[in-house]
Each structure stands twice: as C-alpha cells, then as structure tokens.
Amino acid sequence: MWGGSIRFKAPMMFAIGTVAMFTIGGLSGVTHSMVPADYQQQDTYYIVAHFHYVLFGGAIFGLFSGIYYWFPKFTGKFLNETLGHIHFWIMLLGFNLTFFPMHMSGLLGMPRRIYTYSDGYGWDV
C-alpha cells in the first residue's frame, strides 16, 4: 500500500482488518515462547483469545475480503459499498469486543473449557 493510490472500499478494509487481527494474534502468541508466561497462560482463556485472533481474524476477514472483491467479477452484479463498510465495522468491533477481554480474563487465571465464572475470583464483574 506504501506509495499507492489507496481506495478504502470494502475488500481493502477487510484485507487491512485481516492483517491487523492476525498481527494482534501473532503478538499475543509471542508471549507463549517465554516459559514463565506460557506456564501462567496455559489452559486459560488467553489461549482461546490468541487462537481466535489468529484463525478467525486471519481467515474470516480474508474470506470476506475475497468475497467482496470477486463477487462482482463472477456475477456481474455489484455489492452495496455502504453495506460493506457497515458490515466491516460491525464485524471488527464485535470481534474485538468479544475476544480481546479474553486476554485479560486469561491473564487473571480464567480456565478454558468451562461455561460459567467461578465465584470470588473477580471474573463475574
């Protein structure tokens, strides 16, 4: 994108979102290379957040980028650009509001594979 004539249409927005979410997931994964941090984070919601940022952020945002780019070329029908932008922002905000707090609760010790919060740990705010 450096030095190019950039138009922020829906495919470009989703492509940028792909790179940003994959980068956040990748940076949260770097902490697993340190033994003390990995020992604290193993089997907590921190791992769940990392996993979703890398896989969902890296795959689904990219998939939508491809759909918004290639759909008009395959069908000859253009998609509504305004709805594409609304779709992007709702998905980006919803994704981050869903999975980013999992980093915090994981660092506080919230275990994986349970459906409810334990009493007295401060996760039920």
Cα-based radius of gyration, to the nearest Å: 18 Å
Largest sheet: none
What share of residues are in beta strands? under 5%
Number of domains: 1
Provide the helix percentage: 55-70%
Number of strands: 0
SS field, number of helical segments: 4
Structural class designation: mainly alpha
Coarse morphology: elongated
Spatial gap, N to C terminus: 42 Å
Estimate the mean pLDDT confidence.
Answer: 87
Order of helices and strands: HHHH
Structure characteristics:
125 residues; mainly alpha; 4 helices; 69% helix; elongated
Care to describe what's here?
This protein has one domain (10-107). The mean pLDDT is 87. 69% of the residues lie in helices and 0% in strands. The chain is mostly helical and 125 residues long.
In short:
The protein has 125 residues and is mainly α. The protein has 4 helices and no strands. The longest helix has 31 residues.
